[in-house]
Amino acid sequence: MFPLGQDFDATSWASLEPVTNELISREINSTDELEVFFSDISDMAEHVSEAGAKLYIGMTCDTESEEKQADFLEFVENIRPKMSEISNQLDLKIINLDYLEQLPERYDLIIRSMKNSIELFREENIPLSVQCTKLSTEYQKIVGAMTVEFQGEEYTLPQMRRFLESNDREVRREAWILVRERRMQDSQRITEILDELIELRHKIALNAGFENYRDYAFRSMERFDYTPADCYEFHKSVETHCMPVIHTINDNRLIGFGYNKLRPWDVNEKSGDSPDVQGRGALVPFEDVSELVSLTSEVFHRLSSELGGMFDRLVDGEVLDLDSRKGKAPGGYQYNLEKTGLPFIFMNASGQQGDVETMIHEAGHAFHSMYCSDLRLIQERNYPIEFAEVASMSMELLTQPHWGVFYEDAEECRRAKRMHLESVIGLLAWICRVDAFQHWMYENPSHTHRERSEYWLKLRSRFGPRTDWNGFEEDESLFWQTQGHLFGAPFYYIEYGIAQLGALQIWAKQSIDPQGALSDYKAAMMLGNTRSLPDLFQAADIKLGFDEHHIGSLVDKINSALVSL
Predict the structure, then answer these.
(1) 283 with 313: CB under 8 angstroms?
(2) Please, which residues bridge with residue 150 across strands?
(3) Who is most buried in 187, 243, 322, 347, counting CB within 10 A?
(4) Which residues fall within 8 angstroms of residue 117, CB to CB, at 6 or more apart?
(5) What's the pLDDT score for residue 251?
(6) At 187, phi and psi to the nearest 5?
(7) Rounded CA gap, 531 and 375, in Å?
(8) pLDDT tens-digit map of 105-138
(9) What is the distance between the alpha carbons of residues 92 and 16, in angstroms, rounded to a whole number?
(10) Is-contact 521 367, C-beta < 8 A?
């Protein structure tokens, strides 16, 4: 039976059931047999993972397809719940074996994860989790269908971002208002979706014996190496060191623009970006997706022939869906295809510098997957999210010396680098705002809509730019609706901040020892999930920390780089 053939259909319970029955009933009489058992479970899990990945990819690439959505939901409702129960049975079977401790050290983290899963598993939570997935899928479908008519053409919301970089303030204002009006058309249902998700997630937490979903999420996400208190320290450190920089940048913009106040169409609420204060046109790093791909390939080849070759494998493998179009889900992601052996990259390019950064970011995720693809078990390749984001955010910074590929004009290249470094500061603030919002929501699950809005605005006063939303107060109080993680990946956001600190340290080393920085990067990424999070940071020769001194020193490095630009 094992290994399962490449044509094995993991979307069919008729195919999966005899495989799971054999595993559950198999006798294991030695450590060697147990290691074979682990390998066979991994083989099955790889097929199930890839089947779910392909269905998710198909659905997000075409949210208007009822068939693709139905196929994905069929898998979510009928395969994942059964596999969740099977996984629990297999974990219990392994944990209760007498000679478990005779396994080599490489199994330690896998066993830790199994024990954690057993402690959290509740059969009554399976249908609740299915309902959560259906609601987040509904959110994606709603947002993916959003388009606006602007200047005689129909645009998706990602495509509208280009007009927000215009030097014509009236064009920016009209574009911003159109986007906000379109979002507000569905804001009531999106609010209701979050209401339902909070209620379901709170039930999941209570069923598992936790006081709130925040505490449950920390355990289910295996955050063994930091706590909610560490997150609060992170928030405070960012508020102390990043917000003064953000306000100074915007004060200089106010002077440069000659405005008496900045409006939300003057500064990007999430990244902190703005149009050029000297009136220069928006940066145009590429004309179409094919050029984005070819130029990105050249950047990676200049950075490292190995990375260039890895990126070309993605291109040749046809695992890229990069353009923005109607009916496509928002955002960007990388999804590893465990059996195919190549990661899939999804994004919504619209011809901006931000698209370059997203392309490189997702490629960094792909490199991580490819570097550790030789590890035998799927559990060994299932690296911590916090370190997954080190892989991607490091690439954004490490490729900066080669961004001239996208810009023949040296001044435009300097602008791109400066924009990116400023957005690093802005993103840290946005990350803290989103993370603090989630902590509050799930610690207070019975909150009202008014209380939610008030707390969101309170966080904006701590972590947001001082832009004037006069006349758009409702939009301001509901701007959280644009953050898809709140719906599909709760509490997955502080990881970006933790990883950004790691990426900045690798970037700092690059200025002293370029090859050493790449070597450390590769060595750490090859470890996959075979080391704890602190050990992975140590393998990359970087520090896992949240304190003000650590964050302040990294912000100082960014400030020095901005001055040099």
Answers:
(1) no
(2) 153
(3) 347
(4) 87, 88, 91
(5) 95
(6) -65, -35
(7) 13
(8) 999 999 999 999 999 999 999 999 999 999 999 9
(9) 19
(10) no
